[in-house]
Specification:
two-stranded antiparallel ribbon; 16% strand; 4 helices; 98 residues; alpha+beta; single chain
Length: 98
């Protein structure tokens, strides 16, 4: 998830990086755990370690899937598990939040 910001001095747009761009994702495609479970576990660990604080907006499922080169359904499943366990909240069209 990147956000464009207009830089008044240069007149150029600059990219701001989100937490998801900076996080060192570790996904193994040949491991025993499915990708959605690995994504869920890493997000949950970041929430519990307070690397992701309450109110932090999570990247959209499409953006995170593209960044990780995984299917969107893997990210959707991970987000749904976080929602079911109360680690995240969300509304359709507004996004998901810690």
């Amino acid at each position: 998830m990147t956000a464009e910001a207009y830089h008044s001095e240069t007149g150029l747009k600059e990219q701001r990086r989100s937490w998801a761009n900076l996080y060192a994702w570790q996904l193994t495609r040949d491991g025993e755990a499915p990708l959605f479970r690995q994504i869920y576990a890493q997000l949950r660990a970041a929430i519990l370690a307070q690397d992701l604080r309450p109110g932090t907006k999570l990247p959209s499922t499409r953006q995170l899937a593209a960044q990780l080169s995984v299917s969107r359904s893997a990210v959707v499943s991970a987000y749904e598990q976080l929602l079911a366990e109360g680690y995240a909240t969300g509304k359709v069209g507004s996004g998901s939040f810690v």
